[in-house]
Amino acid sequence: MDDAYCETPGPVAPPASLGVGEGPPYAECVLCRAPTEYPESTKGSTLCPVCTWQEAGRTACSG
């Protein structure tokens, strides 16, 4: 068997500067105003990863 298949991957570092200096300007989260992983040109409501997770939990529990 291939032992590398079952290994837990190491942490993935976020971009060094979300929205500051590198890459396209990033959209703000509509709830907490933190930078998201989406460019400013994205249409609709953009949420940061934390708010996306919290919103999914609220939606799942709302029945």
List keywords for this structure.
single chain; 63 residues; two-stranded antiparallel sheet; 1 helix
Give a written overview of the molecule.
- The protein is of the alpha+beta class and 63 residues long.
- The chain has a domain of 41 residues.
- It is built from one helix and two strands; from the N terminus they run ββα.
- The protein has a two-stranded antiparallel sheet with strand order 1-2.
- A hairpin with a 6-residue loop joins strand 1 and strand 2.
Largest sheet: spatial strand order: 1-2
Strand content: 5-15%
How many strands? 2
Question: Which value, in Å, is the CA radius of gyration?
Answer: 16 Å
Write the layout of secondary structure elements.
Elements: E1 26-28, E2 35-39, H1 49-61
Antiparallel strand pairs: 1-2
Summarize the structure.
The chain is an alpha+beta fold. The chain has a domain at 23-63.
